[in-house]
């Protein structure tokens, strides 16, 4: 496809725009503002909650819709409408099953505020959780983002949320670029017309992307944005 058709770029936050310690890589901040100033809207796509993403969008200067809770919610700032793409009922059942099997598990501080899933401290392997869900007949996935274990329904992911954002912005998926680093970005990266894994991404993420940046974290985002803008008409 011609990169000149790119209508917006979706960018993950933790591990992509931030370092491992979750401090922002300033190079990435400048890149997002460069994209916005060039007429390329930025959509933040995060596993975190809406309040966090709204604050991040304000501080970073992005204008696009927000993908939050790993795709469980899409927020459109133009209409101030929230689109719920899932709920946490099944995730709560999954937590009950896990605790019955392994004893009490600690949720992250943001987990109570989540509406479409929950997050656990990384004291249990995602693989182990998913094996239990399969045995119990629960339609859930467990994803280790590198920061927490995300428990959500199988249909809740950033890919389905990206489809919703594309619909809101009247763009085809071929007209979308995406940048990420972690397993919870894979569905989004797979369907984007132009996909970038920053250099610090795990191998599974790199395999699904059209491009892997030479630079890590925010510098990798800057590299991706520069690539997109350089190919625009």
What can you tell me about this protein's structure?
The chain is α/β, with parallel strands linked by helices. The protein has 2 domains: 8-84 and 157-231, HAD superfamily/HAD-like (Rossmann fold, 3-Layer(aba) Sandwich); 88-153, Hypothetical Protein Ta0175, Chain: A, domain 2 (Alpha-Beta Complex). Helix content is 36%, strand content 19%. The protein contains 8 helices and 11 strands. It has helices at residues 26-37, 50-60, 89-102, 126-136, 158-168, 186-191, 203-208, 217-230; strands spanning 8-12, 42-45, 66-68, 73-76, 81-84, 117-120, 140-144, 149-153, 176-180, 194-197, 211-212. The strands form 2 sheets. It has an 8-stranded mixed beta sheet with strand order 5-4-3-2-1-9-10-11, sandwiched between helices. A 3-stranded antiparallel beta sheet has the order 6-8-7. Helix 1 packs parallel to helix 8 (217-230). The radius of gyration is 17 Å and the shape is globular. The model has no long low-confidence stretch (mean pLDDT 96).
């Amino acid at each position: 496809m011609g990169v000149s058709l790119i209508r917006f770029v979706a960018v993950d936050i933790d591990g992509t725009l931030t370092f491992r310690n979750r401090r922002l890589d300033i190079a990435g901040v400048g890149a997002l503002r460069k994209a916005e100033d060039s007429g390329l809207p930025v959509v933040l796509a995060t596993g975190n909650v809406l309040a966090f993403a709204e604050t991040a969008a304000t501080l970073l200067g992005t204008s696009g819709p927000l993908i939050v809770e790993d795709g469980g919610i899409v927020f459109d700032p133009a209409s101030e409408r929230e689109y719920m793409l899932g709920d946490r009922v099944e995730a709560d059942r999954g937590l009950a099953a896990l605790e019955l099997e392994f004893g009490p598990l600690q949720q992250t501080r943001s987990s109570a505020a989540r509406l479409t899933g929950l997050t656990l401290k990384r004291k249990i392997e995602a693989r182990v959780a998913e094996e239990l869900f399969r045995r119990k007949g629960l339609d859930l996935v467990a994803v280790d983002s590198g920061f927490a274990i995300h428990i959500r329904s199988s249909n809740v992911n950033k890919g389905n949320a990206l489809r919703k954002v594309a619909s809101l912005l009247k763009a085809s998926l071929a007209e979308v670029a995406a940048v990420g680093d972690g397993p919870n970005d894979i569905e989004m990266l797979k369907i984007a017309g132009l996909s970038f894994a920053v250099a610090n991404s795990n191998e599974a993420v790199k395999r699904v992307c059209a491009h892997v940046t030479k630079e890590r974290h925010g510098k990798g985002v800057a590299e991706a944005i520069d690539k997109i803008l350089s190919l625009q008409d």
